[in-house]
Write a structure and sequence with these properties.
This protein has 110 residues and is an alpha+beta fold. It has a single domain, classed as Alpha-Beta Plaits. Strand 2 and strand 3 form a beta hairpin. The two termini are 21 Å apart.
Length: 110
């Protein structure tokens, strides 16, 4: 039983922010969208919490998921490869984003 609780305790929330590198006539988010949706669907089917969506500026998107550091790094590597030509991609641990941390504490532990 301690092994299970250790694994659960290692899981953290992660946020990936993607921003289009340049403005041009081709909406590059639409080009990578099917590939990122497939990646996200695979994660969702495995039971990992995942939310993804675009911001209203049509330049930025965000993915939130729960994973260990190792799995987060694996996801980010796959996501970055898909988006590398058209998007600047950054990953943050949930606690690194103060607003989300405040909301999390107000709503209770997720």
């Amino acid at each position: 039983m301690p092994l299970i609780s250790d694994v659960v305790n290692e899981r953290k929330l992660w946020v990936v922010i993607s921003t289009r590198k340049k403005d041009d006539s081709v909406n590059e988010l639409d080009i990578v969208k099917p590939m990122t949706e497939e990646l996200n669907e695979r994660w969702y089917k495995k039971g990992d919490f995942l939310w993804a969506g675009r911001f209203d500026d049509d330049k930025t998107s965000m993915v939130i998921f729960e994973a260990t550091k190792e799995k987060a790094d694996n996801y980010f590597e796959s996501y970055s490869k898909i988006c590398s030509g058209s998007l600047d991609v950054k990953i943050h641990q949930w606690d690194a984003l103060p607003l989300f941390t405040i909301l999390e504490r107000l709503q209770g532990k997720i």
